[in-house]
Amino acid sequence: MDGRLLDAATTGDAVTMKHLALHNPTVLLGTTPTGNTCLHISSTHGHQGFCMDALALNRSLLSAVNADGETPLLTAAASGHTSLASFLLRCCRDLQLSEAILMQDKDGYNALHHAIQSGHRELALELIAAEPALSEAVNNKDKSPMFMAVMRNYEDVFEKLLEIPGSAHGGTANYNILHAAVRNGNSAIAKKIVETRPSLAREEDRCVHSTPMHLAVIWNKIDVLRVLLEHDRSLGYMLVLISTGPVQRLGQP
């Protein structure tokens, strides 16, 4: 990448960028050793004006992927620049660049994972509406966007994800969204889960083979326990079949 373009992208100097592109349009396609284009770099720093001007000159920058597997949309979402991420999402959608929207980085995170992890619920809802298939991805730790949303008690995001038939619901170590609802003592979410995906009530984690019912008893989550038993009283009889080894709480959301 031309050093002048690198500096311009870092500082958001769109004037210099346009001057360079006027004399050599292909300069915008230059990359750093880690594969970052000027759009990646400006997205990292949240320079929305620069990004808009760069895309006006070369829209192919939207699909560029760096060495970490990130598109500019992913970079913006991971960096917490919600307004810019929303703009880039609209650009991708207008150009029907589903692949760019669905891209997962080297850790398996897509833009929706990052939005939920960072607490950007409005961006998460916008991403779900624009590309529902984002809900199907799990990261390298087997966490689905829905699992992350339930762990954080984001009921609005959870409900939208639950409406998508193919949305993933798993988490690390084979925990699922119902395990996460039990962890938080969220009986409202638990009720919606057992009504729509009842089989999750019988799934065991890989650590100590605990079902959501088992954890509700151990962690004294009475309201959730009541929801589970009202849904299916036979769940109570599963306890005798499960290992009574030490049970650890689910990790941080």
TrEMBL record:
This is Uncharacterized protein. It comes from the Eukaryota. The keyword Metal-binding does not apply. The keyword Transmembrane does not apply. Pfam families: Ank_2. SUPFAM superfamilies: Ankyrin repeat. ANK repeats lie at residues 68-100. InterPro entries: Ankyrin_rpt, Ankyrin_rpt-contain_sf. Keywords: ANK repeat.
